[in-house]
Amino acid sequence: MLILACGAREEDQSLSTKESETDSILAWAKTSRNTSISKEEREKWLTKAYDAALISKNDSLKSRYFSRISLSYLKLEDSAAFRKTNDMAMELAKKIGDSIGHAETHWDLGIFFRGNSIQDSAYYHYQEAQKIYSKNNDDFLSARLLYNMAVVQADVKDYTGSEITTIRAIELLKPLDKFRELYNCYNNLGSITKELKEYEKAIEFYEIALGYLVRLPQSGNLRLNALNNLGVVNQEKGEHKKAIPYFEEVLSADSLLQKRPDLYARSLANLAYNKFKHGAFDRKVIENQFKSALNIRDSIGDIKGLSVSNYNLADYYLYYGDTLTALSYAKKAKETSKVINNNKRLLEVLKLYPSLDPKNAATYTQEYIALNDSLQMEERKTRNKFARIRFETDEFIAQNQLLARQRQLWIGIAMGLVLLAGSIFIIIYQRIKNQRLKFDQQQQESNQEIFDLMLSQKKKVEEGKQQEQKRISEELHDGILGQMNGIRMMLLGLNKKTDDAAVSQRLEVIGKLQDVQEEVRSISHELNYASYQKIHNFINSIQDLIKSIGDAAQMAYEFDYDEELDWDELNGDLKINIYRIVQESLQNCVKHAMAKTLSLRFGAEEKLLKVEIIDDGAGFDMRKGKRGIGLKNITSRVHKLQGTWDIKSKIGAGTTVTVLVPFERQQIVPEAPEEQQPALEKA
Q: What CA–CA distance (Å, rounded) separates 648 from 621?
């Protein structure tokens, strides 16, 4: 019987929904994949689509038709019809140069061979499809094929190869934010490391897989599978008490028995096994749970699960000394393991037999050794086939490259003179270009020097303005205002005169002098205050940077800074390096952390300038994280400024970058206004 493997391809992505609905042949093929109707009805619709495709005159459409039809036969588990239509689809795809159709036929063949446990052929066809998608720069489908290849490698215990292939898939998937596929990849890494008995790494990979599930809108069953996997890792570590809560959480899922009886039975059997091994639970409860799992698996025809349940019961009864019952279940486990070719389970049963039947222990031991040796040899042969497939592929590529070089050589000889002239031209052009590049580099360095000089000159000009404004302010205040006060005092002395004209004249002059005094004081204070007003060019540059990056990444952001600090008075080298540090950190928030919210803070603590960049992104494990070139650049810039920096992060809890650098505080404090002179009283 043909079994569909994981990683099966979806409906044809190259045809629009409208096109597939209006094309009768594609519609019939799609109807044949509707599992809600009977198998006979599905076969009838598929036969109708096949007959119509045969008489189609358009080879391009015909290739698509047979690709769809072969996929339908694959899902109907009709091996002969599948191979026939798949061959027709492949020949047509080759004929018309349809690379996508060619890749799809290889993909379907990979599924077919893996379902029939022909792992080397499955790997070969997955690889052929992957090469086509890679050549077409389709990273998503290329990554999915790499994942399928990795799963096949894991099936034959080529764990190192599977790990390498899975990591290649992850590198393609991460920039695409394909969370379900990333979950599959990390789940596979967890399974691989579990088989290698690297349990801590396995738990880490399973937890990363769970982290990606949080970002999926519907991930209930996948989450339950991941929890079951975490329980199994702890079980194999021998930490049975730690494993029990995982299985209990899975079993507590709503209506799990009705929706996923296979997962319910698996988790129930695992729960009973860990309770049995832990030894702190009621024996009768454990026995009932083992038998309940066995009955559920029997009712749904889960042969693989039956082999596990029978083995568990054999182990259970052996432990309590009921060897007769244990032997009965061991025989059933052996039979079911042989039916599904589950050699791993068969080895475990044979390992149990000497304790159940000591008289024939030698026979069972020999059978165990023979089976184990044959399996190891078969796995070695399969891994060698994989290596040979990769080698032959590389050799074929090398031969093509050699032929291409030879062809280029003959063309080079025939066109020698023309190419010689062209080469001379290119060399001259390259030299001119290099000189221009050197000139541009020198010009850039000169521009930087000019920029620094302009900053310095601007600072000096501003200082001159401030000094001049202060000088004028002092002149107005100490000179003119002093004279006005003297005149006022003289006029006050004339108040002794009592004639009406003198009194009237004195009052008028005093009033005017008071107006002049207030006007001079107002001008003085305005000039003195205006000298300290600044245009914050550095702050504007930072605001433009965070706005451009935040808007492009659709990320909410906020920027707070100490308004009492004169940021434009900072050293030019300090400002440039702080700008680059912030720029690199913001890019990391978008590229790696995938943050939704960002906070940037500028402040000062005594003689230290403090910069904080806080995001709510994915975070990372600081114990496992590797320092990339971006973080190295930040370290270099901070050291150049004789400062320190720190990064704090946790998976799922975001990242905080803190930078502290020394600086000379030049805080602008406006001069306090002069004490108000008392108003003159009228005589």
A: 10
Asked whether the beta carbons of 280 and 304 are under 8 A apart, the reply is no
In this predicted model, what pLDDT tens digit does every residue of 515-572 receive, in sequence order?
666 666 666 665 554 444 444 578 888 888 888 888 877 888 898 888 888 887 888 7
- Domain contains 389: no
Q: What is the pLDDT of residues 210-238, one digit of tens each?
A: 899 888 887 778 888 889 999 999 998 99
Average pLDDT over residues 600-616: 87
Nearest-angstrom CA–CA distance, 630 and 3:
47
Do 467 and 556 fall into the same domain?
no
Crossing angle for the helix pair 179-195 and 199-213, to the nearest 10 degrees = 170
Q: Is 656 found in the same domain as 542?
A: yes
DSSP structure class, residue 671: P
Around Cβ 8, how many Cβ atoms within 10 Å?
Answer: 17
- Determine contact, residues 262/302, Cβ cutoff 8 Å: yes
Whether residues 426 and 526 share a domain: the answer is yes
Task: Judge whether 204 and 189 are in contact, CB under 8 Å.
Answer: no
Query: d(Cα 133, Cα 111) in Å, to the nearest integer?
Result: 17
Q: What's residue 435's pLDDT?
A: 81
- The alpha carbon torsion through 479, 481, 482, 486 (nearest 10 deg) reads 130
Residue 335 inside a domain? The answer is: no
Please tell me whether residues 503 and 469 are part of one structural domain. yes
Nearest CA-CA partner of 12 in 57, 71, 79: 71
Distances (CA, A) of 495 to 482, 508, 681: 21, 13, 12
Helix (H), strand (E), coil (C) string for 113-156: HHHCCCHHHHHHHHHHHHHHHHHCCCHHHHHHHHHHHHHHHHHC
Using a 10 angstrom Cβ sphere, with 0-12 exposed, 13-18 middle and 19 or more buried, the burial of residue 680 is middle
Of 530, 564, 592, the residue at which a domain comes to its end is 530
How many CB atoms neighbour CB 676 within 10 A? 7
Give the span between the Cα atoms of 447 and 570, in whole angstroms. 20
Instruction: Give the max Cα distance, the chain.
Output: 148
DSSP H helices in 196-260: 199-213, 220-237, 240-251, 256-259
**For the purposes of burial, counting CB atoms within 10 Å of the CB of 173, is it exposed (0-12), middle (13-18) or buried (19 or more)?**
buried
Give the domain range for residue 470: 420-530
Same structural domain, 560 and 503: no
* 517 shares its domain with 566: no
CB contact at 8 A, 288 and 271: no
Which ranges in 415-499 belong to alpha helices (H)?
A: 416-474, 481-493
3-state secondary structure 489-527: HHHHHHHHCCCHHHHHHHHHHHHHHHHHHHHHHHHHHHH
Radius of gyration of the chain (CA): 41
SS3 content of the chain, % helix, strand, coil (to 5): 75, 5, 20
Question: The domain that contains 542 carries what CATH number?
Answer: 3.30.565.10
Q: How far apart, in whole angstroms, are the C-alpha atoms of residue 60 and residue 39? A: 29
56 near 25, Cβ under 8 Å? yes
Count: domains in the chain? 2
Structure confidence by residue, pLDDT tens digits, 454-491 = 566 567 667 766 766 665 665 565 546 555 665 665 56
Q: Kindly report the length of the chain.
A: 683
Residue 492 maps to a domain: yes
Same domain for 549 and 648, yes or no, is yes
The answer on 486 and 553 residing in a single domain is no
Residue 241 region, left (φ>0) first, then alpha (ψ -120 to 50), else beta?
alpha
Q: Does 357 fall in a domain?
A: no
Round to whole Å and give the CA distance between 334 and 313: 13
